[in-house]
Amino acid sequence: MPNVAKLQQRLLQHQTQLLERKRFPYMPCGAPYVQHAHDKLLNFTSNDYLSLSQHPKIIQATMEAVQKFGLGALGSAIAQGYTDAHQQLEQKLCHWLNYPRALVLTSGYLAVLATLTALIDQDDFVAVDKQSHASVFDAIQLTQATWQRYADDDMTRLESLLQRRTQGARFIITSGIFSMQGHLARLQQLCALAEQYDAILIVDDVHSTGILGPKGEGSVAELGLSPQQVPVVIGSLSKGLGTVGAYVAGNDLLIETVLQFARPYMFSTTLPGALACASLAAIELAERAQAERVHLQQLSTYFMQRTAELNLPVLPSMSPIKAVLFSDIKTMQAAARALRAQHILVSPIRPPTVARHSPRIRITLTQAHQFTDIDRLLTELKNHV
Question: How many CA atoms lie less than 13 Å away from 66 in the CB half-sphere?
Fold first, then answer.
């Protein structure tokens, strides 16, 4: 039986520190807007970067697949849950990403847990970017490997960490686009260090899928890197592709290892077949979404130009993710509430998602936004920073 008084005290302390999170029911009402109660809100919180979640071709493909597969999956992927739709999706991912093998999982969190716990042994060493997603740190701790953080702008420290480790395998883990900052990792430098010190580079690329690369393949393709340089990449079906799930791609040996030894893969019900068909349709659309990616880049450039003119404290970013910094949590939350009162929805980000000294409002741009939407947002925001 849990200690009730202790739990109550923990929750009270959480509330007192302004760290409490709340949920509100939102409904899409035509991107980039959402509906809450009777309010129509201009939405800057969505990860649906290409606005594919409501695309009629994906909806149609899903409806047709439901007639064939039903709603739910039949079990895990190693039991009855693996269908020809999953096989086709994995084959499509391989062709799209130019990787030999791919596995599909039900979420990005599970994809990270499955990949890292299967590939990393307790005798290995992991150098992990300090801005990596929470799932990365959870997974590393489960491996019981030795690990150290490094900063993306401090390759000297990373090299020092790799030099000092002489036993076991070495791993470097980074995001492609950092989810709370928006900048692209220094992947070329990481590849060079990985080659020099015989380390395996793993890129958590969930926020790059669909929006970077000539055909939306992600940060690896965007920077002209090869599967040999980046042996493992984890991507999302839930963000830029607008559907559900995630994938891990790599060579035959690495992906077979994940398939055989990843407990989150073996012991989780797999993605429903209808949703695998939805992702197949989404990839086909993303491959041809050059105009949408160009528009997103133009929006990003415009946002950075306007915030510079207004002298707003925004972190450098040429991705759709923007971070406006605040001095304290109270001021940040007040700004988010003020924007909400003007029917603009943004994401207030506080610890433990980010460091206590850098609370921020996270803004995500989608191809459905227009330049006038950015003007409206910044006109309101400049009065509260």
Answer: 7
Q: Are 173 and 204 in contact, with CB atoms under 8 Å apart?
A: yes
Q: Are 204 and 174 in contact (CB under 8 A)?
A: yes
**Cis preceding-peptide flag for 264 (omega within 30 of 0):** no
| Of the candidates 190, 164, 165, the residue with the CA atom closest to the CA atom of residue 175 | 190
**Strand residue runs (E) in the chain:** 27-28, 33-36, 39-43, 101-105, 125-129, 146-150, 170-175, 199-204, 232-236, 246-250, 321-325, 344-345, 347-349, 360-364
Neighbours of 306 (CB within 10 A): 18
* Residue keyed to tokens 């030999």: 100
Determine whether 287 is exposed, middle or buried from the number of CB atoms within 10 Å of its CB (0-12, 13-18, 19+). middle
- For 32-67, what is the HEC assignment? CEEEECCEEEEECCCCCCCCCCCCHHHHHHHHHHHH
Residue 366: both structure tokens together: 């989608």
List 236's β-bridge partners, or say none: 246
Separation between Cα atoms, residue 267 and residue 117, nearest integer Å: 14
CA angle 329, 331, 332 (to 5 degrees): 60
pLDDT at 1: 63
Residue 269 DSSP one-character state: B
| DSSP character string of 227-252 | TTTS-EEEEESSSTT-SS-EEEEE-H
Query: If you write DSSP's letter for every residue of 51-107 in order, what string do you get?
Result: --TT-HHHHHHHHHHHHHH-SS--SBTTTT---HHHHHHHHHHHHHHT-SEEEEES-
Q: What is the pLDDT of residues 19-68, one digit of tens each?
A: 888 888 999 999 999 999 889 999 999 999 999 999 999 999 999 999 99
User: Could you tell me if 81 and 269 are in contact, meaning their C-beta atoms sit under 8 angstroms apart?
Assistant: yes
Ranges of residues in the chain whose predicted pLDDT is under 70: 1
